[in-house]
Amino acid sequence: MSRRTTPHAYYRHFVEPNFQDYLQSPNDVRLGFNASLTAFQLAEVMYWFYRRNDPGVVSSWNALRDFHSHLSGREPLFRTIQSVATVYTHLHLYKLSHYEIGSPGMLSGLKLANAGFEAKADWTEDGTGDVMVRRRNGTVASLTQALNAVVLSLWPSVLPSETAA
Question: Which of 16, 156, 11, 18 is nearest to 75 (CA)?
Fold first, then answer.
């Protein structure tokens, strides 16, 4: 019997632990990025796992982006997590010690506190230690609230039982 990473295994071994690490230090942007990246990446893990092993589970979506749209429809804060993950995976050196960060989703950029450099735009702390994400449209979202919605509510309601694989 071969071992493989199922969506549930990925959720248990990466998504949940990264989220719990972030909750221990909710003003740590690095931990917030790690939690957001794995919470978002689970969409790809699930989509491609079931495309290969049980296509009926994901047959409602012709492409991964369609599945992302479905998840955003179920939980609008999924877009915040998607944008944070996109920013994280597309950091690039702009000038010397500054990073220019953009996202096709909702973030205009970030400001990293206590990280040894200042980046171009808008991560802030709200005074309670939470990381606040400023979107391009000017609205602000709590990263903790977004991760709670995606990790604790959305994914448990979306992941099929392991027996479906």
Answer: 156
pLDDT on residue 142: 82
Whole-angstrom Cα distance, residue 148 to residue 165? Answer: 26
Q: CA dist 1 to 4, 6, 7, 60, Å?
A: 10, 14, 18, 30
Query: H or E element: which one contains 60?
Result: none
pLDDT digits (tens, 9 = 90+) for 57-72: 999 999 999 999 999 9
Chain-centroid distance, C-alpha 13: 15
User: Please, which residues bridge with residue 93 across strands?
Assistant: 99
φ, ψ dihedrals at 84, nearest 5°: -60, -45
